[in-house]
Amino acid sequence: YVSSIAYQIEEAIPQVSARALRQVAESEGIVLSRTQSLLLLIAGLCLIGTALSIANMVVKSVLERASEIGLLKAIGATDRAVLALVLVETLLVGAVGAVIGCAAGFGVAQFISLRVFGSGSAANPQVFALVLVAVTAVVLIGSMPAIRLLRGLRPAEVLHNG
To answer: Phi and psi for 35 in degrees, rounded to 5?
Structure first.
């Protein structure tokens, strides 16, 4: 690839001899590869941190509303119905967060692109779809501790203590 670019430069500019410096090109490739690996690691750690934050938020919400959930169960709501209620609420909050995050991320990307490269970047709908899938997965994974807590909630105990 580097050799073909050097050849094109020699054709485009007469009396110029272009040679590829393979060591420089290979070094740049290694740096780019390591940078990409580092960014993937950081993204993975961010997803883990986000899942933990969601777990904390949903468990706190369930504990704060334990008496309401106990009352729902006492009047006949199944574990599945209560679980669906909590998951839908959590997924809606996650979806709103994903839309706001995508908009903010695109705005920051545009700003950086204009400042660094002097031109804007195009929005990619595939990225938005990928973000929504990732948010859904992280929200569901982060909700697992709350699901266990909900299943173990006994109406008599909660209503007696609440």
So the answer is: -65, -40
pLDDT digits (tens, 9 = 90+) for 84-94: 998 899 999 98
Global pTM reads 0.69
Q: How far is CA 144 from CA 25, 56, 125, 139, 155, in A?
A: 47, 11, 29, 9, 20
**What's the CA gap between 137 and 51, in Å, rounded?**
9
For 112-145, what is each residue's pLDDT tens digit?
988 888 888 888 889 888 888 988 899 999 999 9
Q: Phi/psi at 103 (nearest 5 deg)?
A: -65, -45
The distance between the two most distant Cα atoms of the chain, rounded to a whole number of Å, is 92
Given the structure tokens 């919400």, which residue do they identify? 61
Helix or strand or coil: residue 120? Answer: coil
- C-alpha 59 chain-centroid distance: 20
* Alpha helices in 65-78, H assignment, sequence order: 66-74
Alpha-carbon gap, residue 45 to 48, rounded angstroms: 5
**156 token code pair:** 């008599």
